[in-house]
Amino acid sequence: MKKKRLQKILELIREYDVENQDILLKLLQKEGFQVTQATISRDIKELDLVKVASGYGGYKYIEREKQTGKNSDKYIAIFRESVTGIDYAGNLVVIKSHIGMANAACAAVDTMNLTDVLGTIAGDDTIFVACKSEQAAKALCDQIDKLIVG
After folding, report:
1. pLDDT greater than 50 at residue 68
2. Which of 23, 55, 102, 135 is the most interior residue, by most CB within 10 Å?
3. Does the global pTM surpass 0.85?
């Protein structure tokens, strides 16, 4: 049942601009899946879905692409347009972005496959990046500064 549900979620986000978990819940229920918001939240994480601007003033879920080559350039462009500031404290890097753009910018960081990054988490306008050390955090800040400048 879980496999079918995950496949249906992918179909739904490809067909509709699914803005939030509540909309996804209703679409799944309409398709005959009896799920809770907590289940949907876990499914979104497992499917590695991210929110991006829909182009209509809102946001929608999409599948995170495994980035190489030309697709990486797209994420870097989004990252450059999204980020408004960066700093670090200890081994944590804090990246500020325009409101609603942190998930897209965070997806760009995740696609960089940085060896000293332990993990990322994004809110609405803030990204936390856990690095292996303070030196790694400083190096990441320097790298991102260079990336933003171009």
Report:
1. no
2. 102
3. no
